[in-house]
Amino acid sequence: MNETNKYRTAGVDIDAGNELVSRLRPHIAAGEQTLATKGAALLSGLGGFAAALRPPANIKNPVLMASTDGVGTKVELLTQHDRLETAGIDVVAMCVNDLLCGGAQPLFFLDYYACGKLSPTAAARVVTGVAEGCRQANCALVGGETAEMPGVYDTDKFDVAGFAVGMVDESAIIRPQAVQVGDALIAIASSGAHSNGYSLIRHILKQTPPIESEQKWLHEELLYPTRIYCQSIGALSAVCQLHGLAHITGGGLVENLPRTLPQDTAAQVNTAAHPRSRLFNWLKTAGEISEDEMWRVFNCGIGMVAVVAEKKSSLALSCLQENGETAWRLGTVVANSGKPHVLFES
């Protein structure tokens, strides 16, 4: 068959896609080893039409949980500052942290990378980050999709999304019904803004550029990867029953914490319990953002909130700190006659 380049002329390079696949094979092999440690097995993966997986046999009543998410407009800053691997870590983090809130530990992950013109080197850097995120989450990268879409994306633009599947025994699913009035709210620190609020962040940077003395630390903190909590939450759940767990993403504490509470309760939060970092202080001042909007757009330094029995609060704090987390008592679950919401006090 005579080779033609018409598809390449139209903007899609099949050879570049094949080159990328060859670069990803070691990451898939590493994922097979990860599954083996969980008592699972990847029966078919890269190169087939779908990944086939044998689940762990040690879960009595297995329930699958699934989550999907992306990195959002943070990819613009990451591209600008050549932090492509961070995008891969971020997309894993946003998905697997959601799984934790249902009680599941992640089992495997797939990514979707779309771009205007495929650079195997750039795409491989992003997926290398995905593989690193999977390593931190102790889950397997079993495959993904690469889409070269000229005319939809500019030549130098890309987006990445992810899909995570986890497993939990039915008896260990975290449900709002377990939360009781008087339960303790334990905040677990974020590693910055994570992957939310970046459209507003980029707007602030454009309207109020940081002065020279602020630029280095500000950009470092804005570009830091989203923290992955699988190890520490796994350790916590082994010593303390989790009545609730909230991943603080888009919508901030105001929108996400009520998602783990029963209808007749509210979260009473002490905003003075932990000092706000310089990153969020800068964003509030530079962007002239109200306190209400800060709590609704950003995580304000809180990546997760665990709900535990009051008598277990000290144990929970000690466990999280022993596992490398910065954690503090954020507040208490209180009775409420309306829908679940957050009551702020300082």
Features:
single chain, 12 strands, ligase, globular, PurM-like_C_dom, Phosphoribosylformylglycinamidine cyclo-ligase, 38% helix, 4-stranded mixed β-sheet, phosphoribosylformylglycinamidine cyclo-ligase activity, 6-stranded mixed β-sheet, purine biosynthesis, alpha+beta, 346 residues, 60s Ribosomal Protein L30, Chain: A
Structure in words:
The radius of gyration is 21 Å and the shape is globular. The chain has two domains: 6-172, PurM-like, N-terminal domain (60s Ribosomal Protein L30, Chain: A), CATH 3.30.1330; 176-345, PurM-like C-terminal domain (Phosphoribosyl-aminoimidazole Synthetase, Chain A, domain 2). It contains twelve helices and twelve strands. The strands form three sheets. It has a six-stranded mixed sheet. The chain is α+β, with helices and mostly antiparallel strands and 346 residues long. 38% of the residues lie in helices and 24% in strands.
CATH architecture of the largest domain: Alpha-Beta Complex
How far the N terminus sits from the C terminus, by CA atoms, comes to: 74 Å
Which strand-content bin applies to the residues? 15-25%
CATH level 1 name of the largest domain = Alpha Beta
Unreliably modeled segments: none
What is the CATH homologous superfamily assignment of the largest domain? Answer: PurM-like C-terminal domain
Strand neighbour order, sheet with most strands: 8-10-7-11-9-12
Rg calculated over all Cα atoms: 21 Å
The secondary-structure class comes to: alpha+beta
Task: Work out the helicity level.
Answer: 25-40%
Q: What oligomeric state best describes the polypeptide chains here?
A: single chain
Strand elements, count: 12
